[in-house]
């Protein structure tokens, strides 16, 4: 809870960056500090650290995304899955590969929990996240809907160890 202000600062920068890039994602008052607080209270909020400095933030959940039940398309698997949202990297760490480190950490979290599916979504106009999915082996599965608009949905199936 004592990191909410630092996390919110990272998310505010990401919100501003989305707007500067012409994206409509995160331009409607979401996410906000209350969402981050609920993430943390529910045990979903995770930070990537460099010693005590927060590099990035995301929310990670197991089998907990009701919107994914109504996909316009088809998921690759129907087993347990990790879903993650609100991926953001601190301004001072951008362009240094930490988004990929965050995705690798999410994969490790999944494997540690014997889960072999990662599911995520993003706006159609979020070019950096779309590129990150492509570079990291995610497959496009269709569209899901949040707060009245559609998002591109992706899944990555992990190999069992």
Automatic annotation (TrEMBL):
Residues 1-161 form the N-acetyltransferase domain. This is GCN5 family acetyltransferase. The keyword Amino-acid biosynthesis does not apply. Keywords: Transferase. Coiled coil: none annotated. InterPro entries: Acyl_CoA_acyltransferase (IPR016181), GNAT_dom (IPR000182). One of its GO terms (molecular function) is acyltransferase activity, transferring groups other than amino-acyl groups.
